[in-house]
Request: fold
Amino acid sequence: MNRSVAHALSHVLCALAASHVAGTAIAQEWPAAPITVVSPVQAGSAGDTSLRLVLAKLSENLKQPVIVENLPGAAGMIGYDRLARAKPDGYTIGGISDSTLTYVPLVQGRKGFNALDALEPVTLLSTSTWVLVSHPSLPVRTVKELVAFSKANPGRLDYAAAGIGGSHHVVMEAFKSASGSNLVHVPYRGAAAALADVDAGQVPVMFSALSVAFGRIQAKRLVALAVATPARTPLLPEVPTLQEAGLPGFTFSTWTGVLVPKGTPPAIIERLNAELARALKDPGVAGKLSALGATPQPGTPRALTELIESTTNRMRKVILEAKIRAE
Reply:
């Protein structure tokens, strides 16, 4: 090796070492101030409830306030855009659902949209169980009866959903396509408002995350017709799956992941990933999530990247087949 090449290599190695030391220092110093977490959904919705359980433990472990900023609207895209514009310093992060990251932009006609152009994945947090519910006044107690009633009353049976193109809308349109049922979409600003109107009997039916509907089901204010999981959930062992109810292969679940603005230092992403995994593995947090029908799912940034890509491809097919478009 000649002297010039050796000199250049020495500079490269020194730069790499300095970068590693600087990254370690950044991770050790972070966080030195409160952290804002953008949640693009209404407070009290399924993803927000699960997110807050994890963030409470994260705040305790980091010994810094973790402040949730709820920004519902446009099926999550208002919150997404807020996070994408944030300073990439580890003090603004996002807890975002699969719908916002993958299929909402497809429904809204955002051509060429890729969530990973502006955000970097940190970790998957949890997956959620979904359930088809109806108001007790609706004269149905099974999926088969619901489908038959909708066909006998075409255009007269409404369903509630949190916005246009979000999870509640997409899963019901997929259900309509698979079952041949006749239901009319009534969009709401958020999941909490939609479920409240089903509870009040203003709208007779909807798909909901089990975590936010479970209390109402227990109180017999809502009827659980079926769950969208491959197997029955221990929380509602008597309720059949949609597959058992006559829709072979029909399953649906949602997930929430943590992401940060593009350009956030890798050392901070690594530290945040480790701290969130620590919070998710806490027995108290894991137990509370399970009681809500959510499953803790800590993982690597790469695993979340692959999940975003695979969900986008799968849901594109659902959206095209159900012909879902922003109204």
Remarks:
- The first strand starts at residue 35 and ends at 39.
- The mean pLDDT is 90.
- The beta strands are 35-39, 66-70, 92-97, 119-134, 158-162, 184-188, 205-209, 223-227, 253-261, 294-296.
